[in-house]
Design goal:
Elements lengths: L5 H27 L2 E2 L2 H4 L6 E2 L3 H7 L2 H34 L2 H15 L3 H11 L6 H7 L3 H8 L13 H28 L4 H9 L4 H12 L1 H16 L3 H7 L10 H10 L5 H32 L1
Antiparallel strand pairs: 1-2
Helix pairs in contact: 3-15, 4-9, 4-12, 5-9, 6-9, 6-13, 9-12, 9-13, 12-15, 14-15
């Protein structure tokens, strides 16, 4: 075997696994998006009917699709920004702590990141429960004047946070940011520990403020880390499903659907329309590919300029 071919041969097992776990299901999803799949097809007593672009045509004429797309994009933009800002701030603070205290805090915050998505939704659904939630209880402890001044109301008893689409997404943002920022914080901390301390010492001698130090030293040196974290956060937040499903107690409030929950509802709620659900998933995948490709291209351009 020629020596140049050995690296390619070693890549074959990984490529096979990726093709089996990702590529084949994706191809099947694309094929299903051009088909009409009824209960008879699911039971194996009939063949799927090829309908061409009908699933996509009906999808783009559906108002729920456009509201779901809006919810997905706005939620992802807000959540990605908050996750990166909070995670970066915590990572910088961790870098200033002693090794023992830093380890203690990391273990604490990573326990939130390790919580499964369904459990995350359950925790925050309980916190914002209208009758037994601790949030309404805590808000009722505020002085009536202060609560009225800030929120416009004094009594929070029975406040149904999870009934309205707008308030549901506030809770969802809190849920996802709470579970996601530890990963960003630890990644930023790892990057900070690779930056020579002499650079920060020189900045202090020159009288640079903390913000100027971050902007001129930390951010440029950690740009590759931030780029990867941003791309991962975009992918994860565009595909949020489990937490929203639990907060809504199922696909009930169509005004609060995102694309993932809309796809699930179309594919599995009676009567199941798996072709439409697959079409939504294909659209979501294309959007993610476009966004990540654009961001990656911009990142490469910035690297070339520097």
């Amino acid at each position: 075997m020629p020596g140049w071919s050995i690296p390619y041969v070693l890549l074959v097992p990984g490529i096979v696994v990726i093709a089996g776990l990702l590529l084949y299901p994706m191809i099947q999803m694309v094929i299903m998006s051009f088909q009409s799949i009824s209960l008879r097809v699911i039971r194996g007593v009939a063949e799927p009917e090829w309908v061409g672009l009908d699933n996509y045509t009906k999808l783009f004429d559906n108002d729920i699709f456009w509201s779901s797309l809006r919810n997905t994009v706005v939620f992802a933009a807000v959540t990605v920004a908050l996750t990166l800002i909070l995670g970066t701030a915590v990572g910088v603070l961790l870098n200033r702590l002693s090794k023992r205290m830093s380890t203690f805090v990391i273990i604490g915050i990573m326990s939130a990141w390790a919580v499964p998505p369904v459990a995350q939704g359950t925790i925050w659904r309980w916190l914002f429960d209208a009758e037994a939630g601790i949030i309404n209880w805590a808000l009722n402890l505020l002085p009536d004047g202060l609560s009225t001044l800030i929120f416009g109301r004094a009594d929070w008893t029975g406040q149904p946070w999870l009934n309205d689409a707008w308030s549901v997404y506030i809770v969802l943002v809190l849920t996802v940011v709470w579970a996601s920022f530890p990963f960003v914080a630890v990644s930023v901390l790892a990057g900070l520990r690779g930056i020579p301390a002499e650079l920060y010492e020189a900045a202090r001698v020159d009288g640079a403020t903390p913000w100027r130090t971050f902007r001129k030293i930390t951010f440029p040196l950690l740009r590759p880390v931030f780029a990867v974290l941003t791309i991962l956060s975009i992918i994860w937040d565009f595909k949020v499903l489990s937490q929203l499903y639990v907060l809504l107690n199922g696909p009930t409030n169509r005004e609060a659907f995102n694309l993932s929950l809309f796809s699930f509802a179309e594919a599995f709620k009676a009567p199941p329309k798996m072709g439409t659900g697959a079409a939504i998933a294909v659209v979501l995948t294309i959007i993610l590919l476009i966004v990540t490709a654009f961001y990656t291209r911009q990142m490469v351009k910035q690297e070339d300029l520097t």
